[in-house]
């Protein structure tokens, strides 16, 4: 992880310097000092590059003098429009533009402690790499940047402001690691083992195997798993940050549930070969819940939260579930499995029923890479939000705006529910192509027992094929920051 420090404003004696500059800002402070120390090189370069501080624009000056290797200017746009997102993106731009430097100092005329920490957050998030399996990468191809010092006159307050953001970033990294892992390595037992390690952060972790789930009657989840030689797991992670470990809770817990299909071939309703490798990240909902729980514990959030993940592999085999099978879910409701590739909802059905039966949640939020249809509807810009609760929806939408992990609310309606009626069982697991993400949500709603609930379909958001300001291409960990913020803004005592 990129090493972060905060210090009082002073020109660095070596290395690279990043200047964060507002549109129309006049040189002052360190910027003016630097311009003088370099004989006006900064002003001349800005002039040639027509750099004005416009949002998102950058200008790099190589070997400007004053013993510096590079100066990078990053535009923040108009001061009145400054927001957390812009500061994070500026931090991200420093990392993506200065990866060949080893150390960088970041300055601006007036960063508060909180703002300095937000720049650091963007930088750290952008610096993520998953390079476990690269054994031949040449040193000159690897990013060298290992230390960033953000200058602010409130440097000791900035350190305190950074602590919770640091914990959140570590949660994001954990999720990105899990989602990036290949499916031969990260199978359900391995994923459960990685959850167990979270007890180091003070979480209580329970793991259920096929025997325990069989006894409970998890017919829907186990039906999906039965074609695979890998055993399924359900993991329950408890963070008692409001009541204290081992004490009686004062308030109902908030509950998060994740779809963890460590590989989705489609089963007997098998998927086409092209792009099937993407289905290694069909456990992103679970990965997000795990990273979220690590973030909450890491920053000692004053909340009682429970994270549950259903972990299975969906494979075709002589023992696999067939189209036409009828399974009995833990709720007692029967399901006709028309398409074995609509497996995520079957996994969630049992885990959600268990969550609401066992924990009497204040609310439940589930996350799942559930449908290709949500990508058709919302693309890769918004996650789909489905909920039976307007207040929870509004809070989730606000947390999405605040973190940049945005959600768009989709409808739920009895009229869609009709599409999943079965002729021989209580319901079928697919409702046809029209409104495919909505009928999937209607299916899940049948297992929430009227409790306040939201379902986030993150199929379009969990993986990115291109670098963005604070997220390198690959696993995004979409949802970790969003739900961490939901808790921080609304549910901490
Ligand atoms: N895991 C997939 C959904 C998915 C598709 C996630 C693309 C990420 C990218 C899910 O299990 C699935 O296969 N859904 C089917 C449902 C259909 C059979 C009703 C789909 O979307 O095609
Ligand atoms: Mn599927
Ligand atoms: Zn799936």
In short, what is this structure?
This protein has 493 residues and is of the alpha/beta class. Helix content is 35%, strand content 22%.
Which secondary structure elements does this structure contain, and how are they paired or packed?
Elements: E1 3-7, E2 16-22, H1 29-37, H2 41-49, E3 58-65, E4 68-77, H3 84-97, E5 103-107, H4 113-126, E6 147-151, H5 155-180, H6 188-196, E7 204-208, H7 210-216, H8 219-225, E8 233-240, E9 254-264, H9 284-298, E10 304-314, E11 326-328, E12 334-336, H10 344-359, E13 363-368, H11 373-378, E14 383-387, H12 390-403, E15 407-409, H13 414-417, E16 427-428, H14 436-445, E17 453-457, E18 463-464, E19 474-475, H15 480-490
Parallel strand pairs: 1-6, 2-4, 2-5, 5-6, 9-10, 9-13, 12-16, 13-17, 14-15
Antiparallel strand pairs: 3-4, 7-8, 8-10, 11-12, 14-17, 18-19
């Amino acid at each position: 992880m990129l090493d972060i420090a905060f210090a009082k404003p002073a020109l660095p004696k070596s290395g690279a310097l990043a200047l964060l500059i507002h549109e129309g800002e006049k040189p002052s402070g360190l910027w003016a000092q630097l311009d003088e120390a370099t004989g006006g090189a900064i002003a001349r370069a800005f002039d040639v590059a027509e750099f004005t501080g416009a949002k998102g624009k950058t200008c790099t000056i190589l070997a400007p003098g004053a013993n510096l290797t590079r100066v990078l200017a990053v535009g923040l746009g108009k001061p009145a429009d400054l927001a957390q997102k812009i500061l994070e993106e500026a931090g991200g731009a420093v990392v993506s533009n200065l990866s060949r430097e080893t150390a960088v100092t970041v300055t601006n005329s007036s960063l508060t402690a909180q703002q300095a920490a937000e720049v650091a957050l963007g930088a750290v998030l952008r610096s993520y790499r998953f390079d476990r399996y690269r054994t031949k990468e040449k040193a000159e191809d690897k990013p060298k940047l290992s230390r960033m010092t953000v200058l602010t006159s409130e440097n000791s307050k900035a350190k305190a402001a950074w602590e919770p953001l640091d914990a959140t970033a570590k949660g994001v990294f954990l999720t990105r690691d899990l989602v990036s892992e290949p499916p031969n390595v990260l199978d359900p037992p391995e994923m459960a083992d990685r959850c167990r390690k979270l007890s180091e952060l003070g979480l209580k972790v329970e793991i259920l195997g096929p025997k325990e789930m069989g006894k409970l009657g998890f017919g829907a989840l186990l039906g999906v798993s039965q074609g695979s030689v890998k055993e399924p797991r359900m993991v329950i992670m408890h963070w008692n940050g409001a009541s204290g470990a081992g004490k009686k809770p004062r308030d109902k817990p908030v509950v998060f549930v994740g779809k963890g299909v460590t590989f989705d071939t489609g089963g007997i309703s098998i998927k086409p070969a092209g792009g099937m490798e993407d289905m290694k990240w069909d456990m992103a909902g679970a990965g997000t819940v795990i990273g979220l729980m690590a973030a909450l514990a890491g920053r000692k959030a004053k909340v009682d939260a429970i994270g549950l993940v259903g972990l299975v592999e969906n494979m075709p085999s002589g023992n696999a579930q067939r189209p036409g099978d009828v399974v009995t879910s833990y709720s007692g409701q029967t399901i006709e499995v028309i398409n074995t590739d609509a497996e995520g909802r079957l996994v969630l059905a049992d885990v959600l029923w268990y969550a609401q039966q066992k924990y009497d949640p204040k609310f439940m939020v589930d996350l799942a890479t559930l449908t290709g249809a949500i990508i058709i509807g919302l693309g890769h810009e918004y996650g789909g939000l489905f909920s039976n609760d307007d207040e929870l929806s509004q809070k989730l939408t606000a947390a999405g705006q605040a973190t940049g992990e945005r959600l768009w609310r989709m409808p739920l309606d009895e009229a869609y529910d009709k599409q999943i009626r079965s002729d021989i069982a209580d319901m079928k697991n697919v409702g046809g192509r029209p409104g495919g993400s909505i009928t999937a949500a209607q299916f899940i709603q049948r297992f929430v027992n009227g409790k306040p609930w939201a379902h986030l379909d993150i199929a379009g958001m969990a993986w990115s094929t291109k670098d963005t300001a604070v997220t390198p291409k690959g696993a995004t960990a979409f949802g970790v920051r969003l739900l961490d913020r939901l808790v921080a803004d609304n549910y901490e005592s």
